[in-house]
Each structure stands twice: as C-alpha cells, then as structure tokens.
Amino acid sequence: MPPAERILWGHLKNKSVLGVKFRRQYSVGKYIVDFYCPLLKLAIEIDGDSHFDDNSARLDKDRQAYIQSFGIKFLRFTNQEIYKNLEAVLEEIETAIKTSPNPSLLRRGKDS
Length: 112
Description:
112 residues; four-stranded mixed beta sheet; globular
C-alpha cells in the first residue's frame, strides 16, 4: 500500500470515522477502489503522481464514471492532500458520511 493510502487507512480502519466501516482494495465491477463503505456506497480514491498525465486523467475519468454508474458516490484526493492537509480530507469524508442518503442506518449503528 502506498504511503498516502497507509496514512488514510490508519484513520478509516476499525470504524474510526463516525463509526462507519470501510474496506480497502474493494472490487467494483472490473475495477478496484482504494477504500469503500458498502453501507453508504462511498468510494475513496487516492491519486499519486502517475494520475496526472493526460492519458491517465482520461482513464481515471472513465473509471470513475463506470463506478458511479452503480450509484456509488466518489471522493478523490491526491497524495499531497493526504500529506499536507489530512484534517481537511477527513472533514470532507465526515461530511460525505453525514450527508449520506442513508443516515437512518448510521443512527442505528448498522454497517456492512
């Protein structure tokens, strides 16, 4: 696991963010997302330097559209955001959780 993913996983594992369970390296159709919460249908991707050339950006866009076609919400962060502004990344994840279309499940403490 790349360092930025390892850092974020340290904050997501064991239901550490608002009691929500995330899985890592989760298959969605023909792709694998870095982190995924099945309860909320929330995928999180961490992009390293290899994602910033024109071809990779186009492939990432197509991949994201495919994953979103399953009704999955998608959050994307860069390695630099993890290294330099982790608190903002975690706040954005918490906001996505709190504004989930399935908040009643969160209140009951259920997870997948």
